[in-house]
Amino acid sequence: MNQAILPLGIVHLIGTRQTILPKRLFAPGPNEHELEQLFVAASSAPDHDLINPWRFLMIPLHKRLDLGDLFAIALRERDPSATNEQLEQAREKAMRAPLLMLVIVDETKGDSQIDLNERTLSAGCAVQNILLLAHTMGYGAGLTSGKALKSESFRLGLGLHSGEHAICFLSIGTVVSRKPFKIRQDSDSFVKIWGIEKR
Ligand SMILES: Cc1cc2nc3c(=O)[nH]c(=O)nc-3n(C[C@H](O)[C@H](O)[C@H](O)COP(=O)(O)O)c2cc1C
């Protein structure tokens, strides 16, 4: 598309997305209709051979205490000396953001020639579609990972099978506060032309 007719609104929206961490996200989150639109956006992600290698596991409000228990169990497993206060902090992570879902990538589904990198990249595209559309809708959103995602008890508790990877949580909600905007990398730091030292 010619630069002159590129819709500036889209460029602005992409450029103004920023991570809003779950502790800064409050109700209301997306309604049913908006949620459906977010998932339609996710389904537009590129997907080699259409194997649908990722899924989202939503954690409804009535399951947050259970998720908190899984965080606390995972912490106690990797640090048996964790204090009650630390266990409580681990539990509290599950209570943030009105919309919370786990991004899961399946390493085994479909054609085995499509490796984990391709599958994870497809998931990343789906996630970015959601982040951008949520931003366009006026919500804040962010990704969080952490050591619990690798814990076997955590994975089992959430029903992941052995070929699945828990990549990160995706949180969406109304922004109550935000950090200053991060300076973006200059494209020279990540783009080179083969055979040319400097662009
Ligand atoms: C897979 C993934 C996991 C992330 N997990 C965390 C996290 O656990 N904690 C956190 O503060 N940020 C996390 N982030 C967000 C990055 O910190 C954030 O994107 C980065 O600081 C750039 O900020 P921006 O998104 O506002 O441009 C994660 C990002 C990705 C892609």
What features would you describe in this structure?
- The chain has helices spanning 8-16, 32-43, 64-78, 84-92, 116-136, 152-157; strands at 25-26, 54-58, 99-106, 140-144, 164-175.
- Helices cover 36% and strands 16% of the residues.
- By secondary structure, the chain is α+β, with helices and mostly antiparallel strands.
- Helix 3 crosses helix 4.
- Strands 1, 2, 3, 4 and 5 form a 5-stranded antiparallel sheet that branches.
- The protein contains 6 helices and 5 strands; from the N terminus they run αβαβααβαβαβ.
- The two termini are 23 Å apart.
- It has a domain at 19-60 and 97-176: 3-Layer(aba) Sandwich (NADH Oxidase).
- The model has no long low-confidence stretch (mean pLDDT 95).
- Flavin mononucleotide binds next to strand 4 and strand 5.
Find the CATH superfamily of the domain at 19-60 and 97-176.
NADH Oxidase
Low-confidence stretches: none
Q: In terms of structural class, how would the helical and strand content be classed?
A: alpha+beta
Which topology of the domain at 19-60 and 97-176 does CATH recognise? Answer: NADH Oxidase
How much of the sequence lies in strands comes to 15-25%
Number of helices: 6
- Net shape: globular
- Major sheet: size, sense and barrel closure? 5 strands, antiparallel
Alpha carbon gyration radius: 19 Å
Please report the distance between the alpha carbons of the first and last residues.
23 Å
SSE order, one letter for each helix or strand: HEHEHHEHEHE
Give the ligands present.
Answer: flavin mononucleotide
The share of residues in helices is 25-40%
Overall number of strands:
5
